Amino acid sequence: MKGVKERLAYLRGLAEGLNVGQNSPEGRVLVEMMGVLQEMSRSLDKLKMSQSHLEEYIEAVDDDLTDLEDDIYNEYDEEIDLDDFDLDDDEYDEDLELAFDDEGDTAIEYMEMSCPNCGEMVFVDEDVLDSDEIVEVLCPECNETVLVNDNLEVELGSD
Fold it and tell me: InterPro entries given for it (predicted)?
């Protein structure tokens, strides 16, 4: 299919061949229609050019975003080998969850429990459970006692 410009040039040639001019009412209509079509052709060319520039820009932004995602998420996508950590079966408590510090190289064990008063999730570090001192863990939401470590046994909840 021919382009809009070529078709418009063909119509203009036909109009000139028929001696269409400003003298007759039909001629004025055809000349005005040719002018409108010419303006529409220019607008269409501008839109195509703008569309092309926008596509290039979006592709560049998408590439930059992909690079940024790779830089950020590759740090966290690397698999962590649990064999690198000393987690002897007899020392590892089944109730404890395993997390890693910000650098991703140190295992942090913690217990997850909900507050019996308000239901807020509370995370307790393993060091609190193993502490030689009596430790009382408070809910950050309602300030009620969630856990008391009295070195004899760990109590959940408050009395």
Answer: CD1247_N (IPR054688)
